[in-house]
Amino acid sequence: xxxxxxxxxxxxxxxxxxxxxxxxxxxxxxxxxxxxxxxxxxxxxxxxxxxxxxxxxxxxxxxxxxxxxxxxxxxxxxxxxxxxxxxxxxxxxxxxxxxxxxxxxxxxxxxxxxxxxxxxxxxxxxxxxxxxxxxxxxxxxxxxxxxxxxxxxxxxxxxxxxxxxxxxxxxxxxxxxxxxxxxxxxxxxxxxxxxxxxxxxxxxxxxxxxxxxxxxxxxxxxxxxxxxxxxxxxxxxxxxxxxxxxxxxxxxxxxxxxxxxxxxxxxxxxxxxxxxxxxxxxxxxxxxxxxxxxxxxxxxxxxxxxxxxxxxxxxxxxxxxxxxxxxxxxxxxxxxxxxxxxxxxxxxxxxxxxxxxxxxxxxxxxxxxxxxxxxxxxxxxxxxxxxxxxxxxxxxxxxxxxxxxxxxxxxxxxxxxxxxxxxxxxxxxxxxxxxxxxxxxxx
Length: 443
Prior knowledge:
Radius of gyration: 21 Å
CATH topology of the largest domain: Glycosyltransferase
Low-confidence stretches: none
Number of domains: 2
Mean pLDDT: 93
CATH architecture of the largest domain: Alpha/alpha barrel
Helix content: 40-55%
Order of helices and strands: HEHHEHHEEHHEHHHHHHEEH
Shape: globular
CATH class of the largest domain: Mainly Alpha
């Protein structure tokens, strides 16, 4: 009898670029079409419309002890997946652009049904669902539509323009306000939301596809740039202002700051970002840390990892939704790897290391001292960053369930846990591998 539970990928021989197309098709299973239709296992009679992106096929099920329903469409997650659909179509992986057309059409269906443009989550038929409001969603959706705009037919381009215009009209009055954060837990001024809004505004301002640029955009970009600076506390960028003091504290350093460099306007050469990133890695990878993941000790001996989580006070277990403790996430780990790749590409192209006292701990983690002269060779640092990113992605592959990615990995055993086949986990892995390819192309 074959015992697949004992089979692990041979990471020493696995080529990450070869794994990526397989990950894409695993993710694509969660994208509804007119031929691939889902029903809502919790809400009888609700059937998916084409273009809906399931966050995950997991739903409340006592047999598996999962207490979370994920058979819904999140604006944020869907936009992140849509970006990968666009890249796949450009690369010839998708035989046609119908999934892109469906995404835009379904987004318009959701927008028309909601009445408020920051609704975070929808039923799979596009009707509004009681959930948190988040101002990162309209920004990320606009970025996704700009990315795939040239791949749409004329009729769907008109739909996309209407979507983006409505999103911008909403954001004009929302970008200075508070919101629920990316983890849908805390309400306040969010670093991630502000960063993706700034990226959205910059992209609209620079667009070459004929999207009208509102007159208020320039002032908004200046305001958001200053507002992001307010999150620096002298040691790290704080995820939320005011800083949460509830049972989730400490909330910083928070991986959503790194996500802001992947999906938002945060620069990978910002030494304050790198100082924050160094603390993020240390809190889960250093054996002396209060928040050390035991699995990272095992992986270090394998030459893998580390796996990273969301924030030090995390209590979301995923399987039981109790105060069960912190666990690493696939998307957190992949996004940190992407930070390494993007920074390696910048250093390679500029032949300059963003070195100062703030960034010194970050570079020390990949084996280089930038606190004293002379500085190490830029290309050597770039190579070390790329290798560090590879070790993180190899850990994700090693702990995957035959390449299927759930939401989390168990902090002790490394086995997958929480909701299965999370669309964002795949999208984050794919994004990181694309950044890795760009990094290699610059060497």
